[in-house]
Amino acid sequence: MEKFQKLQGIAAPMPLVNIDTDMIIPKVFLKSIQRTGFGKNLFDEMRYNRDGTEIEDFVLNKPQYRNAEILVAGDNFGCGSSREHAPWAIADFGIKCIISTSFADIFFNNSFKNGILPIVLPQEQVDVLMADAEKGENARMTVDLEAQEITTSDGEVIKFEVDAFKKHCLLNGLDDIGLTMEKADSIKSFEDKAAQERPWV
Amino acid sequence: MSPKTLYDKIWDAHVAHEAEDGTSLLYIDRHLVHEVTSPQAFEGLRMAGRKVHAPEKTIAVPDHNVPTTLDRAKGIENEESRIQVEALDKNAKEFGVHYYPVDDVRQGIVHIVGPEQGWTLPGMTVVCGDSHTATHGAFGALAHGIGTSEVEHVLATQTLIQKKSKNMKVEITGKLKPGVTAKDITLAVIGETGTAGGTGYVIEYCGEAIRDLSMEGRMTVCNMAIEGGARAGLIAPDETTFEYVKGRPHAPKGAQWEAALNWWKTLYTDEGAHFDKVVTLKGEDIQPVVTWGTSPEDVLPITGVVPHPEDFTGGKVEAARRSIEYMGLTPGQKLTDIEIDTVFIGSCTNGRIEDLRAVAEVVKGKKIKDGMRAMIVPGSGLVRAQAEEEGLAEIFEAAGFEWRLAGCSMCLAMNPDQLAPEERCAATSNRNFEGRQGYKGRTHLVSPAMAAAAALTGRLTDVRELI
């Protein structure tokens, strides 16, 4: 997995609440058996007309946000299905950090597995960052995972919380499966005990 | 020992390793797999030269892409869909997991097949790369959806890296009124808590109205726990559960059945156990409900009217304005004046035999509205066979419904069952998101009885007027 350490980039504002996984990547694009190539269809139905032309007023089609690497979004981002195609599409587009007041649980976990940092902040602070993002491409935010700090284009510093284990994995680009396999003995002894206690499983 | 919730008990019984910060390796008893979220996970195993750790605990079935028309033996027309199903055929064989292929009568929606075959048992941990895995919580199993990276993690290690969620209790007291069903309960709860109200929690549903539900009804309630944002929904197992499980192909038998039963009977929330959040609804206050917008929290009793965006606060004002425009509705319009083009009955929410019986009760001896497109898609081949045996299929066909083969179908419209732009559907499925059932399609979520009523009248209808 790609490491996430410090990111300085353009933030795009998407104040809509309940942005769901069907909006992020519609099901017609879930038929691939690959993990890559979903970025061009990120937010497909909001981003393109049926003839494939771009919808001009969609935020990521505006010239100042086409290279956004941060998304500041409304409450409950990523609700809906478990499709990891959603963070795959986001990462493939080039967005590496999403800031909101809350995230749906499965999407939140899926993001960390793909080098994306989802940050939860109180409404007032999301409002500050949303306003900063509204300024366009000159407003470059800095997200420092090690320090757990976001710096706005005006130099305002906002601290954020992140789970220590998830932070460690993201900073170092660690593969979960490899880490878990180091605990193979614990898994084996659990299985031996469970086979005694619940042999019907 | 301090009193524990049901969730605490199942969690504690499955922790294989716990780090100092509480990050745990949770052992997984059953891993269900379908064709959409698994190919990249199997490919990951192959690239790393890894095996499936416990193939005997892994059950695969194709459901999302499969055609539901009667001629599906001729194969899948869409090339990408076909490749995805073929990939599952190949992966199931290569890695040696249990498999129900498309032409097996037991094939169906993964969340219907699991319980039906007795794979899902009380006290288990169950995961699947599908958010509606919450369904299995109806058995008092800790069941939740995971992403593809986690699918690969479970395939490789039979564990998940997890931190414990908080406990939330949703109590439905008293009795339901006639015409009110499990679907109305689960939608009413989401209407109350919002789609983020359960985020960070595992919900335990309890109370008389929940106890009174059949297993089918309980599965409907837990199925939509995810729409309330919760990681999982749970209902403590009881005689109704044990009765349902007993004798199923993969349920324990003989002395093992007795041993299992002894443990299952300890799976309840202890008196005085702590819940971090409690929501209580009176069963008698719940009415048949419908959704008007594009989020499952946009719920109103069928007797209501389309709201004004200004009725809301914060970010929801803009979301409601967008929803009302997308849905082609007018604030103040009576919900029962909304005309319907299509009725979809099926899905892991409402594709079980009891759901089909509820539909038959409403439509028996009647005809659906002229020009109405109405389809019934059973949740599994066995549900279909049972409905035919009970004479339900004849009732459906006489009323004018299409009677389909099993699959996810128009719930997410990955197969050819889709809405056209602006086509309006009363659906028994679980999501009314923009484009969910087809590009620009408009979805109103309802119970099977309410969907049946809409099919007869051609508009959203209070089923209580027809029974």
List the helices and strands and how they pair.
The complex is a heterodimer of chains A (201) and B (467).
Chain A: E1 6-14, H1 21-24, H2 44-47, E2 70-73, H3 85-93, E3 97-100, H4 105-112, E4 117-120, H5 123-133, E5 140-144, E6 149-151, E7 157-159, H6 164-172, H7 176-181, H8 184-197
Chain B: H1 6-12, E1 15-18, E2 24-27, E3 30-33, H2 39-48, E4 58-60, H3 79-95, E5 98-99, H4 110-116, E6 125-128, E7 142-145, H5 148-157, E8 159-162, E9 166-173, H6 182-193, E10 201-206, H7 208-211, H8 215-223, E11 232-234, H9 239-245, H10 254-264, E12 277-282, E13 289-291, E14 299-301, H11 316-327, E15 342-345, H12 347-350, H13 353-363, E16 373-376, H14 381-389, H15 392-399, E17 402-403, E18 424-427, E19 442-445, H16 448-457
Parallel strand pairs in B: 3-4, 3-6, 4-5, 6-7, 9-10, 9-12, 10-11, 15-16, 15-18, 16-17, 18-19
Antiparallel strand pairs in B: 1-2, 2-8, 13-14
Helix pairs in contact in B: 2-5, 6-8, 13-15, 13-16
Summarize the structure.
Chain A has 201 residues and is α/β, with parallel strands linked by helices. Chain A contains eight helices and seven strands. The longest helix of chain A is centred in the last third of the chain and has 14 residues.
Q: How many extended strands of chain A? A: 7
Strand order of the largest sheet of chain A: 4-3-2-1-5-6-7
Strand order of the largest sheet of chain B: 5-4-3-6-7
Q: Given the C-alpha coordinates, what overall shape of chain B results?
A: globular
What percentage of residues of chain A falls in helices of 4 or more residues?
25-40%
The helix/strand class of chain B is alpha/beta
**Number of helices, counting only DSSP H or I runs of 4 residues or more of chain B:** 16
Secondary-structure-based class of chain A equals alpha/beta
The radius of gyration of chain A is 19 Å
Integer-rounded radius of gyration of chain B: 21 Å
- Overall form of chain A: globular
- β-strand percent of chain A reads 15-25%
Please give the oligomerization state of what you see.
Answer: heterodimer
Number of continuous helical runs of chain A: 8
Question: pLDDT under 50 segments of chain A (min length 5)?
Answer: none
Give the amount of beta strand of chain B, in percent. Answer: 15-25%
The largest β sheet of chain B comes out as: 5 strands, parallel
- Low-pLDDT parts of chain B are none
Largest sheet of chain A: 7 strands, mixed
Give the SSE string of chain A. EHHEHEHEHEEEHHH
